[in-house]
Amino acid sequence: MIVIDGSFGEGGGQILRTSIALSAILGEPIKITNIRAKRPQPGLKRQHITAITAAATICNAEVEGLKLGSTTVVFKPKNIKSGTFRFDIGTAGSISLVLQTLLPIMAYAPGPTEVTVSGGTDVPWSPPIDYVRTVIMYYLKLMGYEVRIKLVRRGHYPKGGGEVRVTVEKPPRALSAIELVNRGNIRFIKGRSHCVKLPKHVAERQARSAKELLSRELANTQIEIELEWYEPGSDPHLGPGSGIVLWAGAGRALLGADSLGARGKRAEVVGKEAAMKLLNDLRTGMAFDTHMGDNIIPYVALAEGTSLIGGAKLSMHAYTNIWLVKKILNIEIQHQGSMNEPFKLQVKGAGIKY
Questions:
Q1: 183-283 sits in which CATH class?
Q2: Sequential DSSP letters for 174-221
Q3: Is residue 233 over pLDDT 90?
Q4: I want to staple 207 with a disulfide (CB 3.0 to 4.6 A). Which of 128, 193, 246, 338 is the partner?
């Protein structure tokens, strides 16, 4: 049995999510201890329980320690199956973080798989669903893994109520290595600014603020930010919320950034914040933005062949994922770059193939 210390590195839920996904794919039992040891409230929360429950359902796993606040979980997977599944976090817990566990597993399903998850789509401390369905899906497609994500309804903190449907028609059952270190010339910037149960001008101001800053810094670059807003009386969402996600096409690279609205936070600040994040990552010249730099690691670790990637920032999440995939998959990874600085990775993938 593989044993993982959940207090290593960032000591949060990412260790749990990646560990469960890799265990399911390998068919190897795993024990994770000290779960979320470095968080103010250690142990499992609703979204972690949903992620584990979903993974266990898809691979017929036996699970020990699956309860709120538990700091130790034992996961014993069997065979991955395909089919149609539905899971409800029950709170505004992040759907995107649940998908961090499910998406790698779904790549190795024996047939078409559809998963619907209810919860939060745009919540603090997690990738917004628009980032998942643009930037993350773009890179997975480059690796031979095509996923369709439908946003049925948004869910914001604290009411949640969002819903996302994920469909994989043809699981690749193997992933291709990727070589993409430096970004190319910036070809375009696109984005989506949304608000629900709020006046339309909130989405407009977010978009205008982002576009003004980007236009000043990147003259002559094509910038298109679409608005998502609902007429009063026809808005299906449970509670108010807003946010913006931007993405820049730069050669073969696609870099993204986001910002979330909050009570008392001006819409102009939301837009400017997302634009500054994108500009900062673009200035590094690397192909992967700060968040994609850690999200891509489990996939290149599983892939066939050697991947070469360049990330805008070696975050603690990326550092933790590097340590974790090396430990579980017993692979070679060489990296250049200091913590919180641009980095390069050479990953000799485990070549997992079904």
A1: alpha beta
A2: S-B--EE-B---EEEEEEEEEEESS-HHHHHHHHHHHHHHHHHHSTT-
A3: no
A4: 193
